[in-house]
Amino acid sequence: MTLLQIVELINYLVAIVTLPSLIIFFIYEQRRARRNEEQSIYQSLLDQYTHGEY
Q1: The whole model's pTM is what?
Q2: Nearest-angstrom CA–CA distance, 13 and 17
Q3: Does residue 4 contact residue 12 with C-beta atoms inside 8 Å?
Q4: Beta-carbon neighbour count of residue 1 at 10 Å?
Q5: 10-43 confidence digits (pLDDT tens)
Q6: Could you tell me the end-to-end alpha-carbon distance of the chain, in angstroms, rounded to an integer?
Q7: Which helix (H) or strand (E) holds 48?
Q8: Whose CA is closest to 38, among 26, 28, 30?
Q9: What is the pLDDT of residue 51?
Q10: 54, 48 in Cβ contact below 8 A?
């Protein structure tokens, strides 16, 4: 195996592992951000309801 082939192999392995990991991480972060936003809205509505601010 030449140095070029070794570098290409490493490049492919990194691409195979990194790309799916990044996609999974992105989806996880989007869901977490959406959940935090929903909890914030719920808490705001609850505070308004309990303090009589309709």
Answers
A1: 0.66
A2: 6
A3: no
A4: 7
A5: 999 999 999 999 999 999 999 999 999 999 999 9
A6: 73
A7: helix 3-50
A8: 30
A9: 86
A10: yes
Q: How far apart are CA 11 and CA 18, in angstroms?
A: 10
> Rounded distance, CA 41 to CA 50, Å?
14
As given in the structure block, the two tokens for residue 8 are 């290409």
Spatial distance between the Cα atoms of 18 and 24, rounded to a whole number of angstroms: 10
Length of the chain measured in residues: 54
Tokens of 43: 């808490």
- Whether the CA torsion 44, 48, 53, 54 is positive or negative: it is positive
Structure tokens at 41: 């809205």
Question: Would the pLDDT of 53 be above 70?
Answer: no
